Amino acid sequence: MWQLFQFPLCPFSRKVRLLLGEKGVGYDLIRESPWAMRDEFLDMNPAGTTPVMMDEEKGITLLDSQAICEYFEETVEKVPLISGTAAGRAEVRRLTAFFDQNFYADVVGPLLHERMKKRLVERASPDARVLREAMKRANVHMDYMDYLLDHRSWMAGGTLSLADITAAAQLSVADYLGGIDWQGHETVKRWYAGFKSRPSFRPLLSERMEVIVPPPHYEKPDF
Predict the structure, then answer these.
(1) Mean pLDDT of 48-69
(2) Contact at 8 Å (CB) between 42 and 36?
């Protein structure tokens, strides 16, 4: 049985969980707080980051969300999430990288530091200036997402792909931390509401990070 080492607000772990849910792959969740720098965890992943997937019986350890997703995309035929023409697959990978890198760096990373790590680890107050800038950048990114969805059924084309899963994973963490202003983004809101209704997404919405409470609308598919 696969084990997934993660914590509830890790967007990269959420990305992996959504892909595994869509593909019907079973696994056990193992809570891992990477900031604790646990020796046993560092032995698995010296970089000290989540997610990590391990199958002890097979002797396989997978690191990095994209590498993990590509592994299961190659080994599980059900629900292909990087498919279509070569150009189409390139677009899926481009947008996946965009959300994992740009959206995370501009929005999710700062929100996690200010509203989670400072509270749980540093016992410090968030910096209001950093929070305002993250929310401002989130609005810019959501304008781009609106544009994509105005021209496509899904983020990267006509079908659900890893780009949608990655965007939803990052967006869900930002939304949990109160960093998303949905006003003026009805197109993205409809797309995300549909995503929240998918069976693969429901387990994520019911989870909570200790002492950090999401907004009242967070768990509602129709919000």
Answers:
(1) 97
(2) no
